[in-house]
Amino acid sequence: MDTTNNIFKLDQVSFRYYDHFLALDQVSLSIGTGDLFAVIGSNGSGKSTLLQIIGGLLHPEGGSVFFRDRLVTEKTLRDKSFLKFFRERVGFVFQEADVQLFCPTVLDELLYGPLQLDLAETEARARAEEVMQMLKISDLRQRPSYMLSGGEKKRVAIGAALTMNPEVLLFDEPTNGLDPKTQVFLLELLLALNEAGKTIIISTHDLSLVGELQAQVAVLSEEHRLVKTGSAEEILRDEELLLRVNLIHEHIHYHGQTAHSHIHSHYLFHKH
């Protein structure tokens, strides 16, 4: 991790839904420029909430969020120059692509963001064409989103973020609901984007994805606290931690009257 050149810094960030339901409890972390970073935790631990706070879609009730040493708040994002600065540089891909897709056709989806940032239409179209070729969705350009498969929708949602050419890409549970072929494509894309210099931040409970990406990892507990950060190798070796945060479980069986428990994890014991 590039600790001398942090792109994001979170200091004691807390968040509650409806001022009542705790989602994050005093989370502090730093993400370096060019990192491949994963926030992991069980369902309900707050990882998607944390990703949306990093992306400026939610705002903490306590603590601070900095992007390139500039404070990100509801107030600062009302400033048009800072809003443009932030939105040009930070792209977000939602867990459910349907949340993100609303334009009449695939091409319109890819053009929407660049045109909103006042990019010339010729440049926006050139970006859209390049991204469609890269994501192998050129033949879908005139299709509405309701005529796309789940994997196609995911590619279009990613394309809509990529045409903005952001420095940072945030992916919320990127492999959820995808077929194996699309999962492999997405893994290769994440690695390629990171190698090209993009900062990639994902939220996931998919330990195999974390291992394949060899990401830097932040672990959230079921109490919505940050309990450990480290390399993928270090985190995935820590079986006690993974049990404690409910990312793996013990499988119990009996020999006669004696119970034996074994840690059960598709990642740890079914490696490729």
In short:
With 272 residues, the protein is of the alpha/beta class.
Largest sheet: number of strands, sense, barrel closure: 6 strands, mixed
Which structural class fits the helix and strand makeup?
alpha/beta
Rounded to an integer in angstroms, the radius of gyration calculated over CA atoms is 20 Å
Tally of individual helices: 10
What characteristic shape results from the CA principal axes? globular
The topology string of helices and strands comes to EEEHEEHEHHHEHEHEEHHEEH
Q: For the largest beta sheet, what order do the strands appear in spatially?
A: 6-7-8-3-9-10
Contiguous uncertain segments of 5+ residues: 260-272
* Helix content percent band: 25-40%
Strand content: 25-35%
Instruction: Write down the oligomeric state.
Output: single chain
* Average pLDDT: 89
Total number of beta strands: 12
Describe this structure in words.
The strands form three sheets. The protein has a six-stranded mixed beta sheet, sandwiched between helices. Strands 2-1-4-5 form a four-stranded antiparallel beta sheet, covered by helices on one side. A two-stranded antiparallel ribbon has the order 11-12. The protein is globular and about 50 Å long. The two termini are 26 Å apart. Helix content is 35%, strand content 28%. The chain has helices at 47-54, 80-89, 106-116, 121-135, 150-162, 180-195, 207-213, 232-237, 239-244, 266-269; strands at 6-17, 21-32, 36-40, 62-67, 70-71, 90-93, 168-172, 199-204, 216-220, 226-231, 249-255, 258-264. By secondary structure, the protein is of the alpha/beta class.
